[in-house]
Amino acid sequence: METTTFEKAQILEDLVAMLEDMTSDWDTEYDEGITLQTRLIGDLEFESIDVVQFILDIEERYQRRKLPFEKLIMRDGRYVDEILVSDAVDFLHQELNRTVA
Hints:
This protein is mainly alpha-helical. The chain has one domain: Orthogonal Bundle (Non-ribosomal Peptide Synthetase Peptidyl Carrier Protein, Chain A). It is about 45% helix and about 5% strand. It has helices spanning about 10-25, 50-60, 70-75, 85-95, and strands at about 75, 80. It has a two-stranded antiparallel ribbon with strand order 1-2. The longest helix is centred in the N-terminal third of the chain and has 16 residues, at about 10-25. The protein is globular, with a radius of gyration of 14 Å. The two termini are about 10 Å apart. The model has no long low-confidence stretch (mean pLDDT about 90).
């Protein structure tokens, strides 16, 4: 069985491309370029529906359903106020590289 290792740099590149595609026609004040420190809500002006769409795009890109996204969007039973691109990269790096028994 061949296993694929997902490197953080590739995950970042994938997420930046997804986010740029999602926000390309949005009228936002943010023009810094998407980096690990970019905030989805504070910088890219994501609303809850945008977070849902981003999750769906991630599932489609990696062909992985049922990733535990609650680890990314919730802390202590409450939704987080902000998600950094680095949070998403770290989450995906951990979950995509988890060995499936």
